[in-house]
Amino acid sequence: MGLPALEAWAKDHGQAAFRGRQLHDWLYAKGARQLAEVSVLPKLFREQLSAQPPEGAFDWMGRSRELHRSIASDGTTKLLLGTRDGLSIETVGIPAEGRLTVCVSSQVGCSMACRFCATGKGGLQRSLAVHEIVDQVLSVREVMEQRPSHVVFMGMGEPLLNIEVVLAAIHCLCTDLGMAQRQITVSTVGVPRTLPRLAELALERLGRAQFTLAVSLHAPDQHLREELIPTAHAYPLEALLEDCRRYVAVTGRRVSFEYILLGGLNDQPRHAAALAQLLRGFQSHVNLIPYNPIAEEEFQRPMPAAVEGFRRALQERHVAVSVRASRGLDADAACGQLRRRLEGSLEPVPAR
Q1: Cα-Cα-Cα-Cα dihedral of 299, 101, 162, 126, to 10°?
Q2: Which member of 90, 132, 158, 258 is catalytic?
Q3: How many whole angstroms separate alpha carbon 109 and alpha carbon 170?
Q4: Among the options 204, 298, 335, 347, which is catalytic?
Q5: Catalytic residue at 37?
Q6: DSSP 8-state secondary structure symbol assigned to residue 234
Q7: Are 305 and 342 in contact (CB under 8 A)?
Q8: Measured between alpha carbons, how far is 346 from 88 in angstroms, rounded to an integer?
Q9: Which residues make Cβ contacts (< 8 Å) with residue 139, sequence separation at least 6?
């Protein structure tokens, strides 16, 4: 709930509108977890609310429980959070000089079944609600005692299969937490006929589409892409890129393409040349991501020389390119790893 909704809610419950403003401050600025913490609200009012369904202050505030905390040697912090219905989701805080990026999940599990991703191994259980997404940012802020500077929808799930909730969460992050759209990235592996809809909905719901759209390619041709992403058979590369062009035309924003480098499989010079040809004339940027191993697959991390060679090959062909630094390798950093390792354990686990 945003400020106008909270003011209306306060009046609906027999309080002055300013009580809604106070609650907004305690929710978003202070990160309150229970109504009992909101000491500026009248005690009798808090007691009355706590006695009403949904039962308990936990439900009123909409905060998730921390089940486990994993901290890597580089400071990257992964949280396993428990939802009210007994499921678990992952979120990651990635610190860097002068910034803190929060990687958030948009679903519990994922139906896209990418072979290199631990999340897809367990399938999809459900999509997340707005408060469950925003809570991830609040939780990382609370644990790391730092204001997040960036949010990336690159955690569990396919954001475009939860498109309206993701846009509502972006609206909340910008309006209630004071972030800018340009500090937010939405990543997708590609869902047929959704990119044009994303562009239109973003303009309708947010007024403008200034967040970054990151499209996961991971292969320069359809055959290899289907080998890595089984659901890609329903969405040919040509159709995906055409939808990307339509997105650019509607929003005026360039598209970022993500490419996971898998040692010996898609990281050779010929793959770089094919990728450059595929993106020729496209207003785009390529983000190379060295593979983060998971136990269920035998894919290998690329050699540093292969990563540099791939980057150089793209750059020589006038493709804007960068390499994402690997973070949290010693803390189950790959998407879905921590959740699968602790699957079935919903009681809080001591931080490592």
Answers
A1: 70
A2: 90
A3: 20
A4: 335
A5: no
A6: G
A7: no
A8: 8
A9: 63, 64, 66, 79, 81, 91
With H, G, I as helix, E, B as strand and everything else as coil, classify residue 329: coil
* Residue labelled with tokens 């509607």: 250
Task: Give which of 349, 347, 345, 351 is closest to 331, Cα–Cα.
Answer: 351
pLDDT for 346 equals: 46
Residue entry with tokens 């396919």: 158
Answer whether 199's CB lies under 8 Å from 172's CB.
no
Catalytic residue status for 238: no
Local structure of 91: helix, strand or coil: strand
- The position carrying tokens 């009681």 is 347
- Separation between Cα atoms, residue 269 and residue 273, nearest integer Å: 6
Helix, strand, coil percentages, rounded to 5, for the chain: 40, 20, 40
Total residues belonging to the chain: 352
- Which residues does 209 contact at the CB level (< 8 Å), separation at least 6? 181, 198, 199, 202, 203, 250, 251, 253
CA distance 168 to 208: 13
- Which tokens belong to 190? 């590609």
Q: Running DSSP on this structure, what letter comes out for residue 208? A: S
Question: Which pair of tokens denotes residue 33?
Answer: 């977890």
Tens place of pLDDT for every residue, the chain, 352 residues?
A: 999 999 999 999 999 999 999 999 999 999 999 888 899 999 999 888 877 766 555 567 889 999 999 999 999 999 999 999 999 999 999 999 999 999 999 999 999 989 888 888 889 999 999 999 999 999 999 999 999 999 999 999 999 999 999 999 999 999 999 999 999 999 999 999 999 999 999 999 999 999 999 999 999 999 999 999 999 999 999 999 999 999 999 999 999 999 999 999 999 999 999 999 999 988 889 999 999 888 778 899 999 999 999 999 999 999 999 999 877 666 555 565 555 555 654 454 444 3
**Of 320, 283, 290, the residue nearest 305 (C-alpha):** 290
Give the C-alpha separation, 59 to 310, whole Å: 49
